[in-house]
Amino acid sequence: MHVRKYSISDIEGLIGIKAHTIRAWEIRYNLVPPKRTATNIRYYDEEDLKMLLNIVALNENGYKISKIAQMNKKKIADLVLQLKTDWSNESVQLINLSNATIKYDEASFSKILASCIAELGLTKTMDQVLFPFMKKVGMLWQIGAIDPSHEHFAANLIRDRLIVEIDKVHKPKSNDQRRFLLFLPGAELHETGLLFARYLLKSCGHETLYLGQQIPYSDLKKVIESYKPDYALTVLTSLNLGKDINKILGKVIENLDVPLIVAGSLISEFDIVVNDQLKPLKNVCDLVAFLEEI
Q1: Please, what are the domains in the chain?
Q2: What are 242-262's pLDDT values in tens digits?
Q3: Residue among 293, 230, 231 nearest 262 (CA)
């Protein structure tokens, strides 16, 4: 049976605590000392990672490290179990989602999603829990702390849940109904933000045509001629798109004759060249404010 080994830099990324802090916990309190390979290289296994995730969950919720160090594993696990049911506690649920993802625990992941949505509503869950979680997962995949399969596992479960929530929406009657064309260009494969935009638009009574991933630029013209949308909307989050986001947006706009709304984490990270045809939003949640303006 293959045992995954994590370096301290992997652990740092996965639990969100600096390596020097983890070492300090080890030296002062003998908390989760690392194992060593035959060649004396330090590493942590999945049980160590689970323990550290539990310690962080308690520490971020008011328990001092010196007190946690005096507890046995069962006591720590019992206290964390109590925290887990606090679905409005974003830091706890981020840790819970990370733990479920690392273990490919579909039942736990789905329960966390459903419970957060029931407690907070979908919009708050996306804004406060899922978008921060997916950004973290993407960064961890980039540095090799987790496998691509972990990212796919989480993304597909979130995608399935969003589709369920979209189907639940009873579209209100609107006198200001608009048509939106939703798509992802080129190398952008992450649908989470685009699906959430569809949910928001449907909730506000607007019509949407959802095209999803990898739409050729040339096809946009044909779709617009047929569907005649008022706006086009895309979401850019993938680091695979590179740094020249304005070049990508320029290619998209060349094939549009309607305004383009663009949201996603990359929009806040790069200087976007704005023109009359382009409306950048820092995140998908800002779409609600935009809809109130039109």
Answers
A1: 47-166 (1.10.1240.10), 171-293 (3.40.50.280)
A2: 667 888 888 888 889 899 999
A3: 231
